[in-house]
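Hi R.,

Here's the chain you asked about this morning:
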Amino acid sequence: MTETQLVMNEISIEFPGVRALNQVNFKASTGMVHALIGANGAGKSTLMKVLSGAYTHYTGDILMNAEPVTIRSPKHAQSLGIQIVYQEVDTALITSLTVGENIMLNDTVNQMKNKHLIHWRELHQRATGILNSMNIKVSSKALVSELTLAEKQMVLIARSISTECRFLILDEPTAPLSHSEALELFRIIKELKKKNVGIIFISHRLPELFTICDEITVMRNGEFVAREAISDTTQTRVVELMLGKKLEEQFPNKHTNIEKPVLEVQGLFDKTKLKDINFTVQAGEIVGIAGLVGAGKTELCKVLFGYTAKSKGTIRLKGKRLKLKTPYDAVKSHIALVPEERRKEGVLVEESVMTNLTASSLNRFTSPFGFLNVRSEKEKAVEMINRLNIKTPSPETIVQHLSGGNQQKIAIGKWLIADAEVYIFDEPTKGVDVGAKKDIFDLIIELARRGKAVLYASSELAEIIGITHRVYIMYDGQFVKELETDQSNEEQLLYYSTGGEE
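And here is the predicted structure, written out as tokens:
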């Protein structure tokens, strides 16, 4: 098999007020898995959007086998054998169509443009052949809307290799996956590697990079930092290259003054997943909800925020029984939720940083006659930007132009201004680098020290151990174990999370 060399030389790109990439160099080759890593805002996704044709106003040179290419559209990138699978898989698939129709979408569109008949049986046969070649056990006739998130991701990868694919870019592919689903993805990556496909793998999960990748490129602040063989480096060195400084202790001292109960939940059921949930969270306490993907953590968080309805049970805040029919009821009751899907549910991506930070507390900046005090609103937004170290050119910057870690800080910051009593965090470090994670952990400890009740739902078991005081472990929609985290370890949490019994 002929090897293809991909080289990006001195790639630069600017957006209004931001120089996102500054003379970045990057190299990859087919038949290899190359990790691309950096803190949020380092420029990794931007560099890959240049390579995949999404951003076309770049400067610098791109070469394939020493031949210059000018990539000016996603279609052109695909014609060169460059495909990308973004983290938000639902936006890249047509969920009302079948698996086969999604896999063969490019061919189908071309046939329709040329007014050719579509042979549906042949379409599904070809799609099934691609699925079988990757050992993906999904029917080509299944509706995409009925698939799990992991299966949807597999369909996107199958679509990518339905045409000649030389380089496949995977942007945070394991962020929404369970451990077993991630292992299945790694199996497929190894199969693609054998077929001489080059994989460019973006992830914040360092252990998996050292499991699956051959080489690693580190970026920081829009610039190239280092390129090394995985076998010649360590996780500690990579983190220090990302941050530009020695790695500090990740988890802060979690000592707080734990007082009387604030949130009490008894006999909680919903209509689909939750079964007889009972727990308490006290003032100054950080309580973990641990479990694997699909255990029911997100469903619980949404019921507590009034986003979905409970079918049975009681929720009390400081002894008062709550009737949470909508998120508005939860906000009025001083309950805050930082959701897992921040771009869909946590922030308004097409609005400014200032608008997002003050969205949950506009009454604080509004006169009795309904006039908004923009000056006061901006002052509070600037104060929160500085306090949370949000990296943004200005309060007026549109949120979608910021990195994932900064978007997450904004999703948290809006509730700090609103000053809730109960803070619910659902997978708060998903897609966030180690530097931003530490900022989030510090913030959560600060909330607890201010006497807030904190619920921390995560499948990252090391974080549960490091940041919480107690943990309830979920399996199949119910709590199966309660532990003091100072007297527990990740192995115990994983055991009960997978259905282990006493």
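One quick note: The chain has three domains: 5-243, 259-334+420-502, 345-419.

Cheers,
M.
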